[in-house]
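[#protein-structures] MJ: dropping Probable cytosol aminopeptidase here for a structure pass
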Amino acid sequence: MTALTLSTAAAPGLRTDAIVVGVAKVTGSKSGDLVVAPGAEAVDKAYDGRLAGVLETLGASGGEGEVTKLPAPSGFKAPLVVAVGLGALPEKDGSFSAETLRRAAGVAARALAGTKKAGFALPVSDAADAGAIGEGVLLGAYAFDTYKEAAKDGNGSKSGKAPLAEATLLGGKARDKAFKAAIERATAVSEELNRARDLINTPPNDLNPEAFAAVAQAAAKEHGIKVQVLDEKALAKGGYGGILGVGAGSASAPRLVKLSYTSSKAKKHLAFIGKGITYDSGGISLKPAGHNETMKCDMSGAAAVFAAVVAAARLGLEVNVTGWLALAENMPSGSATRPGDVLRMYSGKTVEVLNTDAEGRLVLADALAKASEEKPDAIVDVATLTGAMMLALGNRTFGIMANDDAFRSAVHEAAEEVGEAAWPMPLPDHLKKGMDSPTADIANMGERYGGGLVAGLFLKEFVGEGITWAHLDIAGPAFNEQGPFGYTPKGGTGSAVRTLVRLAELTAVGDLG
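AK: finished. structure tokens for Probable cytosol aminopeptidase:
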């Protein structure tokens, strides 16, 4: 993990391998007109005030995410200057948003892979800016190379370039409590989010339900979190028909993991529930060719919940947070659940399974019913649940459904605040009829159109009466199959971790309602 430090030193005198600056385009200007962003004044002065012109000559446009490298001027301790585009210069007050800074820092950190130390002279007007930049650096520098063959260089190092080792944020006040807290928060959240990414990227032959549960147990012990793991025998004794039904076809038995972080000063209790299908073949309703290769990511919801609970503990938030990881592997075999089977869920309701590839809602239903028994103030479940949500919102935006409009809006605002793209979605009552079953209380499938909403309506049936609930369908942004962008790598992204942490923070201070 990249180390973060704060410094008030001037960029020219900083002993680093590179200095990162921001550049932007003036809105309404002619194509190519650049300005050097605040924070880089000393760097621009070292170029005799002509840094923007030099960058234009090199073809820089100031577009968001653009990186231009050039030799540092005479007198610099660092040999390299890295200019990262911030997009259009804000017209009102010239202040860049936290997300713009976060993305720029992430792009620069990734561009500096193989570099030991870099100074970031990006715009910092307050501690929040420093936190955003720090978060961007730590998330952008992420790399998953666990399974890369060791390079034959005699020292056992991994092939490829190592992530940026150290980042110094210029303009930050190391002894200022607000700045120090912002960096500590950025470090805790980013480290846990990157741990979620590691889990998502781990191949399913190494991460089955039992292995995931072991990771959760180890982290819980480290951070003072109470943990309970229900194995297949305990699940059978407890009547968890949904989780057992999904895991019935696999040689790897399912697990339900409960992580409990408590604060002596807490006045509210949140429950987070994560779908943890460590591999999803579709079961008997086997997925077609071309749809199986990335199904190791179907536990991204559980990874997000796990990371959020640990982050809450590390931050010492004054709120009780319970995380439920519903873990199973969905495989076809002679013992697998068949289309047409009826499962008796933990709640006592029966479900006719019409499609075994609609398995996530089954494990979540059991966890929702169990979590509801503790009467939390709110429940949020997170899942890579439906391809329909990807069709509706694309690959970078997750959908939010809820049984309370105000809570749905609060979750949406929290997501926007931390830079996670999300959109509120409805739960139309008329779609419930499509899940009517002549055999059971409800079927696990309904109308084809609006499938993401149908799944949300199914889950709603298992939420305890009077409990506020929201459902995040992260099927699109959970796993990035394209090239990296901003601070988002290829592969597991850690989607929803920051939203959950922010919800916990807001609840702790009484600002979530």
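MJ: nice. Residues 3-170 form a domain with the Leucine Aminopeptidase, subunit E; domain 1 fold (CATH 3.40.220.10).
AK: one more thing. The chain has two domains: 3-170, 191-509.
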